[in-house]
C-alpha cells in the first residue's frame, strides 16, 4: 500500500504572492487621471505567483539576485509575513492562514536560521539560557537535568564547547555565534529548517565549516531545508534541488546536478556564466546586462524580457508558464518552450 504521508512533499507553496504597500504620504498617492483626481497607492510586488515543493530530506536552495524575493519567500513560509495571495501547506496542513495559537505546534517543527545570528540570540542571555529557553518552552514536561543534557548534546554536535555556556553572545566570533544560533534551532528537534543566507555574513574561511555543519545535521537528524542564498557555489555544495527566482517569479526549478550541467532558462544560464572561473573558455557564455527592474512597476509579459537576448514580441506581452522538461526540470520561458535558444545564439 502507498504511504500518502511519505509521498507528499513536506512543504508545498501554491501560487504565493506578497505585495508590500509603499509608505507614501497622502498627497503622494493623489494622481490626475482622465480629468479626475484619483487616489493610487503603490506596492512592491516582492513575490508573484510562486509555486514550489520541498520533499522530505531535500535541501531546496532558492537563488537569484538581490531583491528578487528570496527572503520574502522564506519569511512567508516561516509565518513571519502574511501572503497577499496563494497557499502554503506543511505536511498536508494549510499553514498560511493559521492563528498564532494554531501556528504554535509548528514553531517546534519549523525553525529559522538568519544571516545575522544576533537576530536569534538575546545579547542579555548567556548561551545556556538562550539554548535552554526553547527546550523548556516546547518540552514543558522535561526535567531540569533533561533540559541541561539536551543543550549539552546539541552544543557538542555543533562544535561549541559546553564549558562556554556561561558566556554571552558578544564573547564569540561570528562563526561561533552562527554555530550557537544553529544549536538553538536544533535544541527542539525540528524537521524543517529555513536558512536565510546563513553563511554570507561570515569570513570565507569559516563559511565552509558552518555549511558542513548544516549538512551533517541534515544527515544525522533527517532535516529538510529551504536554503536561501545568492551564492551558486553554496548551492552546488548544499542543494539537492534549486529554484531560480527573478523579480519575484520562478524561472527554473531543477535537481542541482541537472541545473549545473544543463541550465535552460536564459537567466539561469546568465547566472551560471557570471560565476568567475580561472580559465574562462565556456561556450555560450551569457553576460547579464543592466540591473534587475524595480518590483514596483512589473513589466508586462516575461519578468526577464528587458535583459534577455532571446526575448521576442510574445515574451513582451505574455508571461510564460512553468512547463516540465524531459529531464524533470521546470522552466518558465517562451524561448525554451519554442526551442529557439540555440537558433538565436547561433544566429
Ligand atoms: N517590508 C518591506 N516593505 C517594502 N518592501 C519590501 C519589504 N521587504 C522586502 N521588500 C522589497 O521586496 C523586494 C524583495 O525583497 P527580498 O528581501 O525578499 O529580496 P532578496 O532576494 O532576499 O534580496 P537580498 O538578497 O538583497 O536580501 C525588494 O524590492 C525589497 O525592497
TrEMBL record:
One of its GO terms (molecular function) is ATP binding. SMART domains: AAA. GO terms for biological process: peptide transport; transmembrane transport. Residues 32-272 form the ABC transporter domain. It is found in: Cell inner membrane. One of its GO terms (cellular component) is plasma membrane. InterPro entries: AAA+_ATPase (IPR003593), ABC_transp_ATP-bind (IPR050319), ABC_transporter-like_ATP-bd (IPR003439), ABC_transporter-like_CS (IPR017871), Oligopep_ABC_C (IPR013563), P-loop_NTPase (IPR027417). PROSITE patterns: ABC_TRANSPORTER_1, ABC_TRANSPORTER_2. Signal peptide: none annotated. The keyword ATP-binding applies. Keywords: ATP-binding, Nucleotide-binding, Transport. Its main location: membrane. Pfam families: ABC_tran (PF00005), oligo_HPY (PF08352). Belongs to the ABC transporter superfamily. PANTHER family: D,D-DIPEPTIDE TRANSPORT ATP-BINDING PROTEIN DDPF-RELATED, TRANSPORT ATP-BINDING PROTEIN. This is Peptide ABC transporter ATP-binding protein. It comes from Leisingera methylohalidivorans DSM 14336.
Amino acid at each position: 500500500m502507498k504511504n500518502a504521508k511519505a509521498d507528499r512533499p513536506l512543504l508545498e507553496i501554491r501560487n504565493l504572492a506578497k505585495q508590500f504597500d509603499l509608505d507614501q504620504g497622502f498627497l503622494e498617492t493623489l494622481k490626475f487621471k482622465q480629468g479626475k483626481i484619483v487616489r493610487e497607492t503603490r506596492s512592491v510586488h516582492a513575490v508573484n505567483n510562486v509555486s514550489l515543493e520541498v520533499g522530505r530530506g531535500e535541501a531546496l536552495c532558492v537563488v537569484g539576485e538581490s531583491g528578487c524575493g528570496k527572503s520574502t519567500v522564506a519569511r512567508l513560509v516561516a509565518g513571519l509575513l502574511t501572503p497577499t495571495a496563494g497557499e502554503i501547506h506543511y505536511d498536508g496542513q494549510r499553514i498560511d492562514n493559521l492563528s498564532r495559537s494554531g501556528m504554535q505546534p509548528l514553531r517546534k517543527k519549523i525553525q529559522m536560521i538568519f544571516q545575522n545570528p544576533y537576530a536569534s540570540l538575546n545579547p542579555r542571555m548567556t548561551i545556556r539560557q538562550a539554548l535552554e529557553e526553547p527546550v523548556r518552552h516546547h518540552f514543558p514536561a522535561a526535567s531540569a537535568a533533561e533540559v541541561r543534557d539536551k543543550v549539552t548534546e546539541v552544543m557538542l554536535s555543533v562544535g561549541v564547547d559546553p564549558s562556554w555556556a556561561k558566556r554571552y553572545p558578544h564573547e564569540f566570533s561570528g562563526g561561533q555565534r552562527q554555530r550557537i544560533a544553529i544549536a538553538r534551532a536544533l535544541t527542539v528537534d525540528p524537521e524543517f529548517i529555513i536558512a536565510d543566507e546563513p553563511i554570507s555574513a561570515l569570513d570565507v574561511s569559516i563559511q565552509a565549516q558552518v555549511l558542513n555543519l548544516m549538512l551533517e545535521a541534515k544527515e544525522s537528524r533527517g532535516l529538510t531545508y529551504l536554503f536561501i542564498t545568492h551564492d551558486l557555489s553554496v548551492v552546488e555544495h548544499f542543494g539537492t534541488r534549486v529554484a531560480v527566482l527573478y523579480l519575484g517569479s520562478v524561472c527554473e526549478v531543477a535537481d542541482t546536478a541537472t541545473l549545473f550541467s544543463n541550465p535552460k532558462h536564459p537567466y539561469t544560464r546568465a547566472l551560471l556564466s557570471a560565476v568567475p572561473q580561472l580559465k574562462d573558455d565556456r561556450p555560450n557564455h551569457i553576460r547579464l546586462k543592466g540591473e534587475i527592474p524595480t518590483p514596483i512597476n512589473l513589466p508586462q509579459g516575461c519578468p526577464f524580457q528587458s535583459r534577455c537576448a532571446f526575448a521576442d514580441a510574445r515574451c513582451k506581452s505574455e508571461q510564460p508558464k512553468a512547463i516540465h522538461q524531459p529531464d524533470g526540470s521546470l522552466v518558465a520561458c517562451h524561448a525554451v518552450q519554442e526551442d529557439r535558444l540555440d537558433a538565436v545564439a547561433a544566429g
